[in-house]
Amino acid sequence: MGGGARELAGYLAALGGWVAALAAAALPQWRQSSYAGDAIITAVGLHEGLWMSCAAQSTGQVQCRLHDSLLALDAHIQTSRALMVISLLLGFFGVIVSVVGMKCTKVGEEDPVTKSRIAVAGGVLFVLCG
């Protein structure tokens, strides 16, 4: 596999990881618990995420509500929110910087050393994102 193909494969893997992190930040399944009443009809599954809490009843009905206040949340949820936002921002900048530094793009073709340094900077951003 040539250098350009390896570079493209690495970029696609990093992009896939960033998209997965975006999905993980948005989904409310960070903490799950359940409650079953006296009968199976009253079973409720509780899901709590960074941005909302959801209750899924055994009938298939799901009710979600956004967290009311940032200050009312536990410290670990506030910290997780901040770290996920920072991670997603670093990954977004890594996506942009890496595209500029790749060999298959035309931006900055006149100086290959600078182009390779830009690609390394994009990779560093992806590592920091992780």
Q: Strand-and-helix sequence, N→C? A: HEEEEHH
Low-confidence stretches: none
CATH topology: Butyryl-CoA Dehydrogenase, subunit A, domain 3
Taking Cα atoms only, what radius of gyration do you get, to the nearest Å? 21 Å
**How many β-strand stretches?**
4
Q: Based on CA inertia axes, which overall geometry fits?
A: elongated
Tell me the name of the CATH class.
Mainly Alpha
Main sheet: strand order: 1-2-3-4
Number of helices: 3
Mind telling me which CATH architecture this is? Up-down Bundle
Count of discrete structural domains: 1
Main pleated sheet? 4 strands, antiparallel
Q: Approximately what portion of the residues adopt beta-strand conformation? A: 15-25%
Mean pLDDT over the residues: 84
Structural class: alpha+beta
Identify the notable features of this structure and list them briefly.
single chain; 130 residues; Butyryl-CoA Dehydrogenase, subunit A, domain 3; PMP22/EMP/MP20/Claudin
List the helices and strands and how they pair.
Layout: H1 3-26, E1 31-35, E2 44-48, E3 52-57, E4 62-66, H2 75-101, H3 112-129
Helix pairs in contact: 1-2, 2-3
What can you tell me about this protein's structure?
- Claudins function as major constituents of the tight junction complexes that regulate the permeability of epithelia.
- This is Claudin.
- It comes from Pterocles burchelli.
- By secondary structure, this protein is an alpha+beta fold.
- The chain has one domain (7-129): Butyryl-CoA Dehydrogenase, subunit A, domain 3 (Up-down Bundle).
- The chain has helices at residues 3-26, 75-101, 112-129; strands at 31-35, 44-48, 52-57, 62-66.
- Strands 1-2-3-4 form a four-stranded antiparallel β-sheet, with no helix packed on it.
- Strand 1 (31-35) and strand 2 (44-48) form a beta hairpin.
- Helix 1 runs antiparallel to helix 2 and helix 2 (75-101) packs antiparallel against helix 3.
- The two termini are 26 Å apart.
- The mean pLDDT is 84.
